[in-house]
Amino acid sequence: MGEKNISETKLILRFSNGVNEQNEPVYKDVTFSRITEAATDEAVKAVGIALAPLYGAELVDVVRLNSVSLGK
Fold first, then answer.
1. Beta-carbon neighbour count of residue 31 at 10 Å?
2. Is-contact 30 48, C-beta < 8 A?
3. Number of Cα atoms under 13 Å in the Cβ half of residue 65
4. How far is CA 34 from the centre of its chain?
5. Which residues contact 48 (CB under 8 A, 6 or more apart)?
6. CA 66 to CA 5: how far, in whole Å?
7. Which residues of 35-65 are buried (b: 16+ CB within 10 A; e: fewer)?
8. Cα-flanking dihedrals φ and ψ of residue 60, to 5°?
9. Which of 32, 37, 60, 65 has the CB geometry, 3.0–4.6 Å to 11, for a possible disulfide?
10. In whole angstroms, what is the distance from residue 32 CA to residue 29 CA?
11. pLDDT tens digit string along 12-70?
C-alpha cells in the first residue's frame, strides 16, 4: 500500500448541549477547517482550549480530524 496523503485537517470543538428525552448527553460541534497539517496535536489542542471560552458552553472534547486520501 502506498503512502497516505492527508487531504484536509479540521479542528472540532465539542460542547455539551444538555440531554435528550432518554437522558443521554447531546453535543454541539464547532468545526474549523483549513488547519495546517504540519500543526502538532498539542498545538491544535491548545488553540481549541483557547477558543472554547468564546462559546460560553462546557467544552467536552477537542478533536483533530484528518481526512486521508487512500488513492485509487
1. 11
2. no
3. 14
4. 12
5. 11, 13, 59, 62
6. 10
7. beeeeeeeebbebbeeebeeeebebbebebe
8. -100, -35
9. 32
10. 10
11. 999 999 999 999 999 999 999 999 989 999 999 999 999 999 999 999 999 999 998 88
Length of the chain: 72
pLDDT of 50 reads 97
Helix (H/G/I), strand (E/B), else coil: 14 = strand
| End-to-end CA, the chain | 11
What is the full DSSP assignment across 25-62? EEEEEEEE----TTS-HHHHHHHHHHHGGGGTS-EEEE
Instruction: Give the cell for residue 67.
Output: 481526512
